[in-house]
Amino acid sequence: MSDVTVIDAGKYIAEHRRWFIFLGAALIVAGALAIMFPLAGGVAVEIWVAIALIISGIAQMVHAFAVRQWQGFLFSTLLGILYFATGIILWLDPIKGVITLTVFLAAMLLIDGIMRCILAFRIRPHDGWGLLFAGGLIGILAAFMIWRQLPTSAFWAIGLLLGINLIFSGIAFITLARTARAAS
Fold it and tell me: Which of 18, 98, 124, 163 could be 31's S-S partner, Cβ–Cβ 3.0 to 4.6 Å?
């Protein structure tokens, strides 16, 4: 048997609901700030991506040299250099980095939207196929809106999406706390 203790999530949330409400409120405030100042939110995301790439690049190169006898040494080293260099470039010029990430975001939304539309037609006539298709169309529309407004969209797209995500996450944590309290 395992020594892992199973905790009743609802009871735990109810006991610590103030912390869940605090977290939810903090996320909502952060989300509102990201929406009010979307460029700052976009730059914050860009800096985190730069840091993640730098750390990943260093880890990849350390790994490559730690297992030097491995056949993938050269490939692994080159990937580490690529990650590290990309992170440094993003770090040194955050505004161009935000533009680059916005182009990537538009491409991702376009591909995701196309794939969702295809999937929707593949599962048709099952319930929900229409919502999946509509979501795909919204993704495609968002991609074109961002793409058409480049480079200006770089100053609002990532920060706006970050803000929306943070607000919905905050609402979710507050809802968890309120429903756990009501259930207990």
Answer: 163
